[in-house]
Design a protein that fits this description.
Structural class: mainly alpha
Largest sheet: 3 strands, antiparallel
Helix content: over 70%
Shape: elongated
Order of helices and strands: HHHHHEHEEH
Radius of gyration: 23 Å
Number of helices: 7
Number of domains: 1
Number of strands: 3
Oligomer: single chain
Protein name: Cthe-2314-like HEPN domain-containing protein
Length: 223
């Protein structure tokens, strides 16, 4: 296997695509923060323009004209944007692992499609069992990626607004293990909230994982 070609592939992913995702995540958070600030200022300006004096009048104005917008920018829009970016990043991870497998197919009779299942688990099995690469499956980064995989599957099936029953101990433990996720107690269930650290946390884990994979690829191509 051409080590220069593999390192080029890795460098492009690590220093370009992941950087794009990180930058985009920052832009999302800047946009949400600015829009929220603008909305708060607009509300204050309206209170002054209408000469609202009492808290009751201000509350009525808020409920009639601003409550829905505040809820959208503080809850709904952040969830949509963050989970959308996350699923895009995860799909790119899966795509790159599959492409790496395709590179090694040229030297193996066994093809990726010959293996059972799909996704990152199949790619891991192909690289480790067929290509004899020391795949970094015992690293903390990979273990966390498998947790993100489960979360991606839940998002795919439930959508952006996720709630889990208090009896679902496994899912509660899963969400609590990931940076940037909060469980909000709604008495009968927990509501899953994705904070601004969520996508950036996933990006850092991908950096760590691909750094480990690069080392394994370097070892394989030097043999």
């Amino acid at each position: 296997m051409d080590s220069k070609y593999i390192n080029t592939w890795f460098t492009l992913f690590l220093y370009h695509e992941l950087e794009y995702f990180s930058t985009y995540s920052e832009r999302i958070e800047e946009f949400l923060s600015q829009q929220s600030t603008n909305l708060e200022q607009e509300f204050k300006n309206q209170i002054e323009a209408l000469q609202v004096e009492s808290d009751e009048e201000a509350q009525t104005l808020y409920e009639m004209h601003y409550e829905e917008e505040f809820h959208s920018f503080n809850n709904h829009f952040p969830t949509i944007l963050r989970t959308s970016l996350f699923t895009t990043m995860y799909s790119y991870l899966e795509k790159q692992l599959n492409q790496l497998c395709k590179m090694f197919e040229k030297e193996n009779k066994v093809k990726l499609s010959d293996l059972k299942h799909s996704g990152i688990g199949r790619a891991k099995n192909y690289l480790s069992k067929v290509c004899n690469i020391d795949f970094p499956s015992r690293t903390d980064a990979w273990n966390q990626i498998t947790n993100y995989q489960k979360i991606r599957n839940i998002i795919t099936h439930q959508g952006n607004e996720i709630s889990i029953k208090k009896s679902e101990k496994t899912n509660i433990s899963l969400f609590n293990s990931v940076v940037g996720i909060r469980l909000v107690d709604r008495v009968m269930h927990y509501e899953v909230k994705f904070d601004e650290e969520f996508c950036e946390g996933f990006s850092k884990i991908l950096y760590s994982f691909f750094a480990s994979l690069e080392e394994s690829l370097d070892e394989e191509t030097c043999e």
